[in-house]
Amino acid sequence: MSDERKYSDGDIENKIARYLSEHDGNTTNIIQDLPEGTVFHNFTSARSNLISWYPFLSNDRVLEIGAGMGALTVQLAQNVQTGCCIGALYKSADYFFALSAIF
């Protein structure tokens, strides 16, 4: 089996990873600074509505499978004690490392 990565969201992965690295993981202005559909889709504040209903406890642990570009990862990390995310995107490691700077 080849080590070549087959799945990718394209160059936007590099742009997001670079942005997060340059902004210490802060996503506050990412939609305005990178006005592309994929960025909006993944970083809109409306995403938090997908999990805001769940009564997380401060000592909960979460395994996020299919983390993709981290659309819910920040919200999960803000609500639980420990989290682990698994995804298929090769660049995920770059931007999850950058996001970790805010925690």
Tags for this entry?
103 residues, 5 helices, 10% strand, single chain, alpha+beta
Notes on the structure:
- By secondary structure, the protein is an alpha+beta fold.
- 36% of the residues lie in helices and 10% in strands.
- The protein has a two-stranded parallel sheet with strand order 1-2.
- Helix 4 links the parallel strand 1 (61-65) and strand 2.
- Helix 1 packs parallel to helix 5.
- The longest helix has 11 residues, at 12-22.
- The mean pLDDT is 76.
What is this entry, summarized?
The chain has five helices and two strands. It is of the alpha+beta class and 103 residues long. Strands 1-2 form a two-stranded parallel sheet.
Strand order of the largest sheet: 1-2
Order of helices and strands: HHHEHEH
- Rg is 14 Å
Q: For the report, how would you describe the main beta sheet?
A: 2 strands, parallel
The strand count comes to 2
- Give the percentage of residues in beta strands: 5-15%
Average pLDDT metric: 76
Structural class: alpha+beta
Spatial shape? globular
Protein topology:
Layout: H1 12-22, H2 30-33, H3 37-43, E1 61-65, H4 73-79, E2 82-86, H5 92-99
